């Protein structure tokens, strides 16, 4: 299954980079690295890792690498891991463009294995939104996150809230909450893990949960939450008035649910 998804991500990497590494999105991070994070997630990061300078950080399934770039700007040494060589190549090109390449190591690695990533090395491991949908073995993912953290190290995840997974774009139920997959398409295999699946995998790995946040989507007129990535890559946009309607739960029932979840956990030591 990872190989199937890897092929898909390599195939779509150019279009993904054209959007996520465009001047519009990069300028937000250049202006303020905190813009790479939901503001609540940023507050959690500041609480548990108040000074990022000099810290060693690993970002598995690094995707657009916005978090990686932000951590490098704030003085950390970062390892960016992703299953897609093309995604990493695009991110490395951007890092060289802005002079961050000396602070970032790019490693092609499956998040469920983190091959070649040394034990007890990192002060902080961070995973961003859209990671868990690609993971077929949560226990392996979290055992390896635990393995690479230093004693006393922190793990923070920011993710689309599992409560959203049962719904389709028309706010109709497409699956029961406890139907976790695998869900097969011609090009990809995905999963719809529940809150309990993620939390139990974290705890079973030996990490201690220390903080939980459930957040609503922030109103972003440049990238409205309820326009899919597939549509964004096709150039679909919305007016400010349309975005305002999306964020009113009377017009969009999905706006009544939390859109994001953020968890913090710590390795004993």
Describe this structure as you would to a colleague.
- The protein is an alpha/beta fold.
- The protein has helices at 2-20, 23-31, 39-48, 66-73, 85-98, 138-148, 195-204, 229-233, 240-246; strands at 56-59, 77-82, 104-108, 122-127, 149-160, 183-184, 189-190, 208-215, 260-266.
- A seven-stranded mixed β-sheet has the order 3-2-1-4-5-9-8, sandwiched between helices. A two-stranded antiparallel ribbon has the order 6-7.
- β1, α4 and β2 form a beta-alpha-beta unit.
- The protein is globular and about 50 Å long.
- The model has no long low-confidence stretch (mean pLDDT 94).
Number of strands: 9
**Quaternary organisation:** single chain
Shape: globular
Helix and strand element order = HHHEHEHEEHEEEHEHHE
pLDDT averaged residue by residue: 94
Major pleated sheet:
7 strands, mixed
- How many H/I helical runs? 9
- The residue fraction in helices comes out at 25-40%
Instruction: List the strand order in the largest sheet.
Output: 3-2-1-4-5-9-8
Q: How much of the polypeptide forms β-strand, as a percent range?
A: 15-25%
Structural class, judged by helices and strands? alpha/beta
Distance between the termini: 35 Å
Which stretches are poorly predicted, pLDDT < 50 over at least 5 residues? none
What value does the Rg take, in angstroms?
18 Å
């Amino acid at each position: 299954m990872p190989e199937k998804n890897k092929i898909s991500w390599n195939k779509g990497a150019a279009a993904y980079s054209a959007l996520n590494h465009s001047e519009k999105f990069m300028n937000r991070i250049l202006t303020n690295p905190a813009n790479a994070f939901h503001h609540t997630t940023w507050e959690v990061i500041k609480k548990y890792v108040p000074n990022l300078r000099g810290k060693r950080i690993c970002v598995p399934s690094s995707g657009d690498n916005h978090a990686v770039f932000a951590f490098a700007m704030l003085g950390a040494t970062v390892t960016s891991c992703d299953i897609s060589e093309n995604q990493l190549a695009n991110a490395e090109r951007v890092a060289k463009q802005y002079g961050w390449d000396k602070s970032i190591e790019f490693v092609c690695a499956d998040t469920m294995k983190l091959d070649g990533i040394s034990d007890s090395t990192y002060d902080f491991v961070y995973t961003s939104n859209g990671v868990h949908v690609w993971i077929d073995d949560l226990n392996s993912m979290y055992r390896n996150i635990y393995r690479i953290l230093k004693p006393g190290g922190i793990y923070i995840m920011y993710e689309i809230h599992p409560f959203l997974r049962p719904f389709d774009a028309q706010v109709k139920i497409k699956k029961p909450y406890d139907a976790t997959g695998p869900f097969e398409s011609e090009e990809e295999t995905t999963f719809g893990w529940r809150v309990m699946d993620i939390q139990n995998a974290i705890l079973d790995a030996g990490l201690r949960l220390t903080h939980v946040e459930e957040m609503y989507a922030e109103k972003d007129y440049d990238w409205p939450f309820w326009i899919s990535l597939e549509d964004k890559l096709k150039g679909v946009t919305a007016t400010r008035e349309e975005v305002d309607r999306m964020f009113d739960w009377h017009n969009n029932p999905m706006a009544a649910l939390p859109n994001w979840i953020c968890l913090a956990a710590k390795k004993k030591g």
